[in-house]
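Now for one specimen:
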Amino acid sequence: MDSRESTILIHCIENLSQHDSFLSMGKYIQHGHTDCLLHSIAVAYYSYAAAKRLHLNLNEKSLVTGALLHDYFLYDWHEPDTSHRFHGFTHPKTALENARQNWNLNKIEIDIITKHMFPLILALPHCKESILVCIIDKVCSISEILFLPTCKEVRCLYDCAINCKK
C-alpha cells in the first residue's frame, strides 16, 4: 500500500483517536491475545487493502470508519456476566449505540457496524463495504484465535492510534 492510500487509514484513525473511548478498546481482549483496538485496525487495514487490490469502487472513508468502529462495544465480553452471554448477537447494536454518542455516522458506516456478524445474526449486509468488512472480520478473527502474528503495517497503525492523543 502506498503512502497516499495509507493516508485515508491514518486520517480516520487520528480522527477517531481524539476520543479516549475509542482508544479504550485497547483495554479489552477480543480474540486470543488481540485487543479490540488492534482487531478493529486490522479489519480496517485488510478491508481497505482488499478493496484496493480488487479494484472495488467503494466509499473508502466509510469502509475504514465502519471497520474501525465495528466492535466499539467497550466491555470485556470474557467476564462471567449474564449480560455478555449473547455477546455475538448483541454487540453490533451496542457498538452502534456507543459510536453514535461520539460521531455522526452515515448509512454505510451504520450498515457495516450492525451487519458485520452475518450470518450469526440474520441481518444481511446491504452495501459492498459491509460485505467486505463482514468477510475480513471473520478472516482476522480466525487469524487471532490461531495466534498468527500481526503484520508490521497494522502494528504501525496501532502505534499511530495510541500516540495520536499524546
